[in-house]
Design brief:
By secondary structure, this protein is of the alpha/beta class. The chain is about 50% helix and about 15% strand. It has three domains: about 110 residues, Rossmann fold (3-Layer(aba) Sandwich); about 35 residues, 2-Layer Sandwich (Double Stranded RNA Binding Domain); about 80 residues. The structure holds ligand SHN and 1,4-dihydronicotinamide adenine dinucleotide.
Length: about 230
Amino acid sequence: MTEYYPIFLNLKNRLCVVIGGGKVAERKVLSLVKAGAKVKIISPEVTEALKKIIRDYNLQWEGRPYQEGDLKEAFLVISATNSPEVQKKVFQEAEARKIPCNVVDKPELCSFIVPSKVQRGDLLIAISTGGASPAVARRIREKLESFFGEEYTIYLILMRKIREKILESRLSPEEKERKLQTFALAPIPEYIKNGDFTFLITLLEKEGLSELIPELNILYKSSRDK
Ligand SMILES: C[C@@]1(CC(=O)O)c2cc3[nH]c(cc4nc(cc5[nH]c(cc(n2)[C@H]1CCC(=O)O)[C@@](C)(CC(=O)O)[C@@H]5CCC(=O)O)C(CC(=O)O)=C4CCC(=O)O)c(CCC(=O)O)c3CC(=O)O
Ligand SMILES: NC(=O)C1=CN([C@@H]2O[C@H](COP(=O)(O)OP(=O)(O)OC[C@H]3O[C@@H](n4cnc5c(N)ncnc54)[C@H](O)[C@@H]3O)[C@@H](O)[C@H]2O)C=CC1
């Protein structure tokens, strides 16, 4: 069993190379694009859906087989071809260049694996079974998705503001910590889900954060307009 180390990578404007253009490449390309990466695809053929993604996001696509040197400027690489020889060559080049590499059908040729994820604005939950069962990772994702609903997006926008106000206040470190814990413990996601802010308003007043009350309405309205 491999002991993995979980991290959240900032891929904004980083060149990520995806080798292959099938169904699996499609999924990996989309998640890289969503993370703001600069994606380059190398594959003689790509699926219709991937063609659309390439057009929509103006991605680079080289319509040819992988060749050594393709990873020259890459920050990371994902190899999603159906050819074991190509997969191995990509891994070898990535190792030589010391670039993180994911080979989608061979965990032994991966220096990182991609988790299943639940995203609600700033909340990002990553799930891995260490490759034991990607289907189980997916099922766990589906369960978490129903538990952590869309209200968590607003919840975290609000908590970020609450935390900023508390940290910039002149309170003692102990008092700051108490307030941060109080807000983290309050069932605010439920209030947001039910659109009932009575208790939250009382809490904000009690903790000296009344200035944030007008924000509640703005946040709630913007979430309902979506
Ligand atoms: C090691 C890893 C490497 C990597 O890709 O990073 C890997 C490897 C392999 N996957 C295989 C199969 C499937 N993978 C999926 C789906 C996903 N696979 C993902 C990640 C990972 N897959 C990494 C480990 C993740 C972990 O820690 O568990 C997810 C989470 C993220 C993503 O791909 O973006 C995404 C779910 C996203 C979601 O819906 O939330 C489904 C479909 C499904 O169930 O929906 C199936 C068919 C069902 C099944 O086999 O379970 C096979 C056999 C291939 C074959 O036999 O042809 C291998 C190779 C092997 O195991 O040797
Ligand atoms: N990690 C994961 O989540 C999963 C992995 N897999 C495995 O991933 C692999 C890919 O799966 P699919 O996308 O369904 O395969 P696919 O057969 O649909 O696509 C393969 C792609 O590789 C490209 N390709 C072939 N030779 C190439 C070369 N020399 N250079 C560049 N590109 C080349 C082809 O043009 C094609 O676009 C398979 O081995 C499959 O078993 C399958 C399901 C999930």
